[in-house]
Design goal:
This protein has about 300 residues and is α/β, with parallel strands linked by helices. It is built from nine helices and 14 strands.
């Protein structure tokens, strides 16, 4: 079900949600958090809503989308409420702000937040220079950005490093989870010969390459070299140099990697690129600060 509320207010939206619940029980209770998505009106907006809907099947939540519909238009707030099959396991409230209402503002969402529930803020594109100091960021328990979607991903990472507060995270880091799991498992299995050098091969436009190199630097206390691949190729290879023989994890395509290590036959490992839904769902699983990310981003 989709209910449109043109030229409305947050108070009217809240009353409409209560009315829908009373009339037909179409909005289930038991939401565990409020996810506030801050984006621009258009295709980007729908992509973010789709990912949030899918993630909500694992984490039932209220999704509030603040979409910048144009700051030059006259002041107006249009809303849309999506429930049932149009909202996954969530309830979606899309707020399209015009004029002064196009700008991010806690006041627009305050009346719609679930009481006594954690708040997660997500900027799919257009990350702010300081997420924790934005109007919504100040009230959020977790703040999620995606440096890979910024014009200059490296500068986006630098902004996070310079302004980092506990609760900040970035989906470029979340995309590394499976790589980190595989590399940690390999190091647990090999002999105690120390790693003397590391090479990380990845796309020149991938902030995940930079974060993986930073994590390995901290974890192994060894010099790490980044080998740049063409843009758009993602992470392809990690080579760990050891006196007793190198260990290499190489993903030539999009889903399967090959692990080679001394004295053992090569192993094929499932290592697919992670979807936006998978990354978002992982971040919604934990509402406490990601301390490892904090250490990595502040020392990258």
């Amino acid at each position: 079900m989709i209910v449109d509320l043109p030229d409305t207010t947050a108070s009217k939206i809240s009353k409409k949600i209560m009315s829908l619940r009373e009339q037909g029980g179409v909005i289930a209770l038991g939401r565990v958090l409020t996810l506030v998505v801050l984006t621009r009106s258009g295709l980007v907006e729908e992509e973010a809503i789709e990912a949030a809907n899918e993630a909500s099947r694992e984490h039932p939540c209220r999704i509030i989308v603040l979409a910048d519909a144009g700051a030059t238009a006259p002041n107006r707030l249009d809303a849309q409420i999506r429930v049932g099959g149009d909202a996954g396991a969530s309830e979606v409230i899309v707020l399209r702000g015009y004029g002064e209402l196009a700008h991010e503002s806690e006041s627009l969402v305050a009346a719609l937040l679930l009481p006594d529930a954690p708040i997660v803020a997500w900027w799919p594109h257009g990350a702010p220079e300081n997420a924790a100091e934005t109007s919504v960021g100040r009230i959020a328990h977790r703040r999620i950005t995606d440096s890979a979607n910024e014009t200059d991903p490296q500068m986006a990472l630098e902004n996070i490093r310079a302004t980092y507060k506990a609760g900040d995270t970035d989906l470029a880091w979340t995309r590394l989870t499976n790589w980190r799991i595989q590399l940690a498992a390999v190091l647990d299995q090999v002999d105690s010969s120390p790693v003397t050098a590391v090479a990380v091969e990845g796309a020149s436009d991938s902030p995940s390459t930079i974060l993986l190199a930073a994590w390995l630097t901290l974890a192994l206390d060894a010099p790490v070299t980044i080998v740049a691949d063409p843009a758009g190729t993602g992470i392809r290879r990690v080579r760990l140099t050891r006196h007793t023989g190198d260990v290499q994890l190489f993903r030539p395509g999009l889903s399967v990697a090959e692990l080679t290590q001394p004295g053992q036959p090569a192993q094929r490992i499932s290592l697919p690129r992670r979807s936006l839904k998978d990354c978002l769902a992982e971040e919604l699983r934990r509402l406490d600060p990601d301390e490892v990310f904090g250490q990595v981003i502040q020392n990258h």
